[in-house]
Amino acid sequence: LGLTKKELSILPELSDVPQPEFRCPFRTPRCNPNSKFREADGSCNNLQRPLWGKAGMPLKRFLSPWYDDGVSSPRTLGVFGNPLPSARLVSTTIHEADSENTRNPFVSHMVMQWGQFIDHDITNTPVDT
Q1: Contact in structure between 75 and 69 (CB atoms under 8 Å)
Q2: pTM for the full model?
Q3: What is the number of structural domains in the chain?
């Protein structure tokens, strides 16, 4: 992954990110371990850490974000300085009309929708700085 020694040194602490209620006004919900379903907001999915995965909670990143303008502009160069392909080229290459993936009887349009749901959930999640 091309991690620096500093980035590697903090990986163990990322697995036990402090509960955000120490810094935020969130209260830890009371979870019913016998409930057939978890909460719609994602709380109580992890009974030991009920706020993990809850809507609106910040995530700690494994790696620092890397943008062309340092803020939000998508990267145009790879780690070795080579130009990155456009997102459109990557998408059309992966989903080529005569690709075996497009003829898979076990993969439907729902797979794409699920991926988009996960992507938008991650993209719109606050980041713990």
Answers
A1: no
A2: 0.42
A3: 2
Residue 62 has which token pair?
């494994």
Do 74 and 50 fall within a single domain? no
What tens digit of pLDDT does each residue of 27-64 get?
A: 788 999 999 888 888 899 889 989 888 887 877 777 77
Cα–Cα distance for residue pair 121/113, rounded to 1 Å: 12
| Residue 72: count of CB within 10 angstroms of its CB | 8
- 16/32 Cα distance (integer angstroms): 23
43-53 burial code (b ≥16 CB/10 A, e <16): bbeeeeebbbb
d(Cα 56, Cα 121) in Å, to the nearest integer?
10
Active-site hit among 55, 63, 120, 126: 120
Whether residues 33 and 69 fall in one domain: no
28 shares a domain with 70: no
Query: Catalytic residue at 109?
Result: no
| Domain of residue 85, residue span | 65-124
